[in-house]
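Q: My labmate handed me this sequence with no annotations at all. I'd like to see what the chain might look like in three dimensions before we decide whether it's worth expressing. Could you predict it?
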Amino acid sequence: MAIITPIETPPGVRKRIGLTCPATLESIGEIELCTAEDVYTAVDIAREAQPAWAALSFEERGKYMLRALKVLIERQDEFIDTILRETPRPRMESIQMDIFAACDSLHYYARKTARFLRPEKKKLHGVLGFSKTLRIVYRPLGVVGVISPWNGPFILSINPAIQALMAGNTVLIKPSSATPYSGKIIGDLFEAAGLPKGVLTVLLGDCITGEALIEAGVDKITFTGSVATGRKIAVACAERLIPCTLELGGKDPMIVCGDADLDYAAGGAVAGSLMNAGQYCCGTERVYVVDSIADEFIQKVVDRVSKLRQGTEGEFDVGAIITPQQMEIIEEHVADAIAKGAKVLTGGRRNPNLKGLYYEPTVLIDVTHDMLVMCEETFGPIVPIMRVRDEEEAITMANDSQYGLAANVWTRNKRKGYDIARRIDSGSVCVNDMAITYGAPEAPFGGWKNSGIGQYNGETGLKGYCHVQPILIDRFGGKQTANSYPYSTKKEIGFQKFVRFLWGNWIGRRISMLRLPI
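A: Here is what I predict for the chain of 518 residues:
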């Protein structure tokens, strides 16, 4: 996220902001913010374009995704450079998080959507099954707004947009005002792929732009960001009776069992906590390790963390903190932990050798749940490690949180890992890996508790961008309904006998569940 500087503009002139790279503290440009009127116009254009887009077959829509895939592969260096100016991190992380993930999403949904959203024939049971047939069709909602965050501005914009597009919707993307260029290049990408005008539009703006997007009459909002903003969006959507998917904050736990491979687990803790300098929603923010192996595990983590390189150019491992506000939160959380008895084993301060917003990769021990670093989202390169008596206590502590986005469990026993995962109050859980569920398109992704509502990705995500419409068709042309009237005592008695027959004995109950061929 670039550092934002408001630019004074005369009354009646569009607002502008200046953007500064958080790593180099050098200017990366200025942007003009969309007005509410711009948003309303864009929604009208998207609304007008939507019927023709929805009329295309899944295969025809998929061709545009595959063209975009080809453009992205050919221009990936250009796209990476743009993203890294706003979110400075190791180039390898952008290749993985942005390019690889976007390529996978474009190809996956281009190939799979037709199977996921084709009309379905369903068998009905009992009496209705005798007289009716059921079809389920998946109709696009219309115009979808995607409001994306600053920590993963490219992939967290393009991935939901691809799903909404393939379902037959038109899309408006409103990226964070601090990472506008990472959003703008998505529009450039689809324009280069030949996407028809109005099918996808990127709106550069601030919170006023996001509010206008909801007010302008879209048919769904997908939002990734803070809990506070997510609550406001949920209220605004509820007032307009439109659905929303909210992927909000996380305080994701990691459980290290007594039988874990400690080299692998230590590597997982470091990668899970420090990728993108800890600034991603599924980042590991709390580590619970069984006391019997805690000393060895902690030493292995410290050894790994102390060797990591921070930087801006060339080969390095950990990038910058993306906003000054986030740096303040990280410093507050670490200071609070130290004041309450936590110990810093490595790191614990701003990096004095680098010009920009860099916080040293940090390992904390002797942490407790009365510390901010263990209960509120830190979003920084911090590995707080807490000893627990056993796996049972680890599960209890993992669930002691207002959040529930992702989690991970480490054990040599895969069955035990699965059993523990099922008991964690989390939107998703990984066994013997950092939280990577978002990168598995087949897996629905979303939060639990304060981490959000709704899911996207995979078949579940695609159907979330549709109205699921059941269609019942009478096998006999409507004869039964046409003969409903007049009612009579004889009909009442006969129907009550029929009820007793169907559910008053085991033979009737068996018959009531029979399903005829479609």
